[in-house]
Each structure stands twice: as structure tokens, then as C-alpha cells.
Amino acid sequence: MILDIQDLSAGYGSTPVISGIHMTADPGRICAVMGRNGSGKTTLLRCINHVLPPLNGKIRILGQDITRMARHRIAQIISVVPQVNFSPFSFSCRDMVLMAGAARIRAWAAPSRKEQDRAASAMAEVGIDHLAPQAFNAISGGERQLVMLARALFQKTPIMLLDEPTAHLDFTNQHRIMALMRKLAAKRQMTVIITLHDPNLTYHYCDDVVLIHQGRVAAAGKTADTLTGDVLARVLGDNIRLDVTTGGVRVAVPARFDSETNQPQHASANPLTTHEKKRIV
Amino acid sequence: MRLRWVILGIAFVFGLFACLCIGRYPIHPAQVIRLLLAGLGLDNAASGGLADPMVIFWNIRVPRVLLAMLAGAGISAAGAVFQALFRNPLAAPDILGVTAGAGFGAALAIMFLVPAALVIQASAFVFGITAVTLAYVLASLSRDRSPSVLVISGIVISAMFQAGLSFIMYLANPYDQLAQIIFWTMGSFHTASWAKIQATLPVLVPGITLLILFSWRLNIMTQGEEDALSLGVPVMRWRIFYVLVSTLMVAAAVAAAGTVAWIGLIVPHIARYLAGPEHTRLIPMSAFLGGFFLMIMDSVARSVMLSEIPISIVTSIFGAPFLGYLVIHAGKARLSHDT
């Protein structure tokens, strides 16, 4: 077990935004963290990365208490792809990626030729080596997201956190990023924790899911077992229901509305949910 | 990039030579070479009738040119650092109150202490550092650890020292003290001496060296606190380091020459235009251009009129339009906020 979270509470000031969180993660798997806006997904990620100290509970990475680890040591284990990608100064994409070498490079040194080659390899792995000399702020949002992904890969950590990486991307780029994460998690045996809003991306790409509702874990487990119609309706809202395509692929779609009451039909009306296994924590 | 450095190096040599020649007492270029050789013990100055020029050249002009170069390099390198730390291309090195504090210290020395150049310099230096320390203490009382709180604290402390300076000016004798204070607040290198260089050099040279040595980390500091932490950089510790080194440098430069407007803001922009935003290239370029620019500006200040023009007037007249030109012609991509 690479990540172990026990009874975590955290928030801003003394008011907890998340509380009683238990969660574990294993290598080579992608775990989606889902929940409505303000449910505490980003707060959870900030705690795992220890930029927000917990109010209560323990986070262990590779068996070590994160609160006792030096900043550069945490950065050797956890990399982050942040939600907003903007640089106040327009560095080249190569320079943006190279920044992830900080945890390995001495404070007075700049990246060596070897580090520069490694950064180039990370960019090539993501398929953006052609962007290396371009100004980061002059490329598209999707390309920036890929640069940030290459940066996290160059950091070469066993755990990668992605905060809504698909939020501002078009359909093609959303799937491009997620497919890449799928491939990289398997190839590098990396633990990927990713906050998502779209249940369909979770169905397609994530092994596990943790659903957070009002700061608490509402359901957690393997995606296929956990992300049921009932759970979707209860956590993400009753205007979502689960459907199955003719090809047998599960999709989350807007709920049917009752024409008389103008209310969404409850997810329990969905025939699938009665046969689905679910695990409520 | 290498070619740019070669061109700039040649321009610098010519500029330096011109600055050593021109002034209230013009010295012929051939004579400058002889004076330089004489200073190095390779020519006999007295036998060549160079006794008087020797004194002017080595005791007044050379220290003045050197001091302007040092101050310009220090303030500009500090400006680039502050812009990175505060993630704001409009940040200037006096954003935390160092200039206001130094101005108050200088005025205090002129009014109440011995108004000798070195006493004024020492007082300005101490109060410059005091102002930034107070801004830091004030910011640390807030729960918010973002750089904007530090900037607001700097504004508060600057305003208080500015009020103190104004009060001293109100009390000052208008015939001598007030004029001296006003001249100081507009900056000048006319009191440059080897003693001033001795007091400034031990702060500015190690300071610039440290900033160049640790320049790569500044790239990461521009990414914001959380991103920098995620990349493994303990932000608070490094912020204190950069602010401390830069403040010492600016305080030393301002204490020696008075307020030097604009160059800490514009030179990093010009440097960014020539070297790009990456700090291992930007900091040396800022230091080099700052030294070069202020050396030329000081020569203009002491040459264009019969009486000396305060340096801040010259740097503003040349600097501000040049920045405007860059904004219009260089394109936003080179300067900062863009997409």
C-alpha cells in the first residue's frame, strides 16, 4: 500500500471541510475522487500533497508519516498536475518541465545536461517534444495541460495527483489525457489519484473511485462495483442516471424528467441499479 | 545569445571608456589610456604632466563610474528577483519599503547627526533594512502567508517612513538641510569616493554573486506557493533568503547614492527582452544592463548641464519612454502576462 489515509480531517481555519476520511491506494491503479463542487476533493488532494496540514488524522506515504517528511522528500514521492495552468512569466515549455527537477538538484545548481535529456524524454513520452522551445503561455489550454503532465512525469514520482485535469479541455483532449494516464499508470506502476466531475471518464479509465459528499466519503471501492446509479444520484445529484449502450458500455446521462411534475425521475427507477452491487462506506 | 553578449560586451567597453572621458573636466581618450596605465604603475604620470588629471581621474571619476555601475547592477538584479518573488512584472525593489526607510534615515542624519557622507550612508542603510524588517514582522502577524500581504505591509511601512521624511523636511532649514534632503531623495553620485565603494562593495558583489548562484530556483518561485512546494521548494525559507539578499543590496546602493528611480523596474524588463524570462540568464543580464545603464545615465546627469542633474530625473526621462517603446514593439509575450 503506497498511500494510507486514516481518519483525516482538514479545512481552512478550524472548520473542517473534509472529515473522517479513510482511503488507501495501490501502485499501477488510477483512483478517481468524485463529488460535487465544494465537496472537498481539492482539499483532500492538498492534504495528500501536504500543502494543507491536517486538523486530525494521519497520512502515510510509503509507510512514512507525511507531516514528518521534508518538502523535497515529499516532492520525490508525489507530483501534482494543478488545476490552473498559467505562468506569470512566459517560460519556454522546456523550462516549465525542467522545474520538476528541483527536488533532485542542489539549491545552487541548474539542471545538468542529463536532467535536460530526461526532461526531453518526458515530453516525448507525452508526445509534446515539438513544444519544447515554445512559450508556455502562448500554447493552447490542452497543450499546457500536457506540458504540466510531462512536468509531473519528469518529477518521476510513484504517486501523481491530478486536480481536474480535464476541466477546460475539449472532448478529444479529455480522452487523450485520460488514455495517457491509463497507459502511464500501467507502464510506470504509478499510483494516480485524479479528481473528476465526469462519471463517464471514471467508468472508462479509473480502476477505483472515492465519492465525497459533504466532506465525507460516501462510497469507495472498485469503479465497476461502486459507481452505481443509486450512488451517482445520491452523491452527484438526482438529475443523473445510469444507462447502458447497445454495446454494453455504461454511461451517465441526464435523468428523464417526469412530464407532469417536471421533477427528475429517481435513479432507483433505473432498472440497472437494482442488479448492481454497491458498497457504501 | 552568445552573440548578444559579445555585442553588449563591446558596447560596454566603449560606454565605459566614454564615461571615463566625459564630464565637467573632459579627458582626451589617449590621456585616459595613459592615466589607466599610470594607475596600474605602467606609466609615469608625474613626468608626463598628468598629476592633476591623475587626481581627478582616480579619485573622482573612476570611483563615481564604479559606484554607479555597482548600484545599477545591484538594484536591477534585485528588481528582477522581486518581480519573480511577487509574480508581478510591475514589482520594484523598493516595494517593501527599503527606499522610504533609507530616505528617512538619510534625512534623519542630515538633520540631527553629522551630515557627513558616510554617516548619511550608514543611517540610510540601517533604516532601509529596518523598514523591510518591520514590513516582514507586520506581514507575519497575518494568518495569510501570501506575498500580497507582504506587499501591503510594505506599502504601510513605506507610508509611515514617507510621513516621517516629510515631517523632517517640514522641520528642516530651507537654506541648507532641506536642499540636501531633497537632493538626496532624487539621488546622485556626486559624493562617490573610494570610501563609499569600500562600504558598498562588500554588500553588492557577494549579493549579486549569491543571486546569480541561486537564480535557477527563482523560476520555481514564480509558479506560486503551492506549485513551488509541490516541486520540492520550501517557499517561505527561500523567500526570506531572496528578500534578505536583495534588500541588503538595494539598501547599500540607495544609501550610497540616494533614491534611484525606475531602473529596478525597467532594467529587468529590458533584460527579459534580451535574455528571456529564465532566471539563470535573466539575473546576470539584469545586473549587467543595470550597471551599464546607470553608468551612462550618471554620465548624462553630470555632463548635459552646468550643474548636476539628480540621477532619478535622468533615469525617469530615459527609462520610462524606453519601457513604453518595449511594451509597444516587443510584444506582450516577452514582457509577461500573455497568452
Q: Could you describe the 3D structure shown?
A:
The complex is a heterodimer of chains A (281) and B (339). Chain A contains 9 helices and 12 strands. The radius of gyration of chain A is 20 Å and the shape is globular. Chain A has one domain (3-227): P-loop containing nucleotide triphosphate hydrolases (Rossmann fold). In chain A, the strands form 3 sheets. Chain A has a 6-stranded mixed beta sheet, with helices on both faces. By secondary structure, chain A is of the alpha/beta class. Chain A has helices at 41-48, 71-77, 93-98, 113-126, 141-155, 171-188, 199-205, 223-226, 229-236; strands at 3-12, 15-25, 30-35, 56-61, 64-65, 78-81, 159-163, 191-196, 208-213, 216-222, 240-244, 250-254. Chain B has a single domain, classed as ABC transporter involved in vitamin B12 uptake, BtuC. Chain B is built from 15 helices and no strands. In chain B, helix 12 packs across helix 13. The radius of gyration of chain B is 20 Å and the shape is globular. The model of chain B is unreliable at 332-339 (pLDDT under 50). The interface between A and B is medium-sized, with 34 and 33 residues.
Instruction: Please tally the β strands of chain A and state the result.
Output: 12
The domain count of chain A comes to 1
Note the total helix count of chain A: 9
Number of helices of chain B: 15
User: What is the CATH architecture term of chain B?
Assistant: Orthogonal Bundle
- Characterize the biggest β-sheet of chain B: none
Structural class determined from secondary elements of chain A: alpha/beta
C-alpha Rg of chain A, in Å?
20 Å
Number of domains of chain B: 1
Going by CATH, the homologous superfamily of chain A would be P-loop containing nucleotide triphosphate hydrolases
CATH architectural category of chain A: 3-Layer(aba) Sandwich
